[in-house]
């Protein structure tokens, strides 16, 4: 997929039509081929872009304005419907192009499997990479119903690639017994909570390249009902924003990020898409170099 021309569809608020001037490339990953409960996250990127129009370009949290930053919306990666293996390849190939141009990739999913090929490509450029993962689910299975390419497996694959000691998980409140045992033994694992342990961990990551992946279901369904696998007992939207700000104000080097699992069909109020758009705005303003 070429992405050096302005996307002709709806774009995230304030996107610059010139790629070469951009520091960050936003792109959609419309894939939900392996979901285990409710499909529809392939429509998330489009709806989040549309919802971004309700936002101001100024962030009072960071005292920064989108007009001060250059970012390019490349549109959605065209993916082969129902083919996880080829889709994973296409996602990786696209992210490689972004990184070759020395831009930061910021993805909008799509199911969480999409994070696996992204991190695999980012790791080729940043060998000391660490991953910060905010989610309701551990995503640490080796397979789901015999399928190794599943939205339940990306963090296990990432842990095997980077070394589990380079994975930091926050907010997890759902998983198998095996997943929780693996996480507690091998990973920097902080179940149920996000903000307090995140703030404690960030100084230890000073100076390191970090990839940030956020599953919208880290939020309680009261704040984000529009997702494929809602899990009660999550954090509120203000805490998620504060977590993004804590990362932005830390001395880690964010080299890529994504927000996944927005499924618009299950939230006619559109509050899920709006909070996702706001989180992405804060990522843009806080993470862009």
Automatic annotation (TrEMBL):
The keyword Manganese applies. Keywords: Hydrolase, Manganese, Metal-binding. GO terms for biological process: putrescine biosynthetic process from arginine, via agmatine. It comes from the Bacteria. Mn(2+) binds at residues 112, 135, 137, 139, 215, 217. Its cofactor is Mn(2+). InterPro entries: Agmatinase-rel (IPR005925), Ureohydrolase (IPR006035), Ureohydrolase_dom_sf (IPR023696), Ureohydrolase_Mn_BS (IPR020855). Binds 2 manganese ions per subunit. Signal peptide: none annotated. Pfam families: Arginase. One of its GO terms (molecular function) is metal ion binding. CDD domains: Agmatinase-like_2. Belongs to the arginase family. Agmatinase subfamily. This is Agmatinase. The lineage of its organism: Bacteria, Bacillati, Bacillota, Bacilli, Bacillales.
């Amino acid at each position: 997929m070429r992405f050096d021309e302005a996307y002709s569809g709806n774009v995230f608020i304030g996107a610059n039509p010139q790629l070469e001037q951009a520091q960050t490339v936003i792109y959609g990953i419309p894939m939900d081929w392996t979901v285990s409960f409710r499909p529809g996250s392939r429509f998330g990127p489009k709806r989040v872009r549309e919802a971004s129009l309700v936002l101001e370009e100024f962030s009072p949290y960071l005292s920064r304005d989108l007009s001060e930053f250059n970012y390019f919306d490349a549109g959605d990666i065209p993916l082969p419907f129902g083919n996880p293996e080829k889709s994973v390849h296409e996602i990786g190939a696209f992210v490689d192009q972004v990184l070759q141009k020395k831009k930061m990739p910021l993805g909008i999913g799509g199911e969480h499997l999409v994070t696996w090929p992204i991190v695999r490509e980012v790791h080729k450029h940043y060998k000391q990479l660490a991953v910060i993962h905010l989610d309701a689910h551990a995503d640490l299975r080796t397979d789901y119903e015999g399928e190794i390419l599943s939205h339940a497996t990306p963090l296990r694959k990432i842990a095997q690639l980077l070394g589990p000691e380079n994975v930091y998980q926050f907010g997890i409140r759902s998983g198998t017994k095996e997943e929780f045992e693996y996480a507690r033994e091998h990973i920097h694992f902080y179940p149920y909570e996000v903000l307090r342990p995140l703030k404690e961990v960030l100084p230890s990551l000073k100076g390191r390249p970090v990839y940030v992946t956020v599953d919208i279901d880290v939020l309680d369904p009261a704040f984000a009902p529009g997702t494929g696998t809602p899990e009660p007992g999550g954090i509120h939207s203000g805490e998620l924003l504060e977590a993004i700000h804590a990362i932005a104000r830390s001395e880690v080097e964010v080299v890529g990020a994504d927000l996944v699992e927005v499924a618009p069909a299950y939230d006619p109020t559109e509050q899920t898409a709006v909070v996702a758009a706001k989180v992405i705005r804060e990522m843009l303003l806080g993470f862009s170099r």
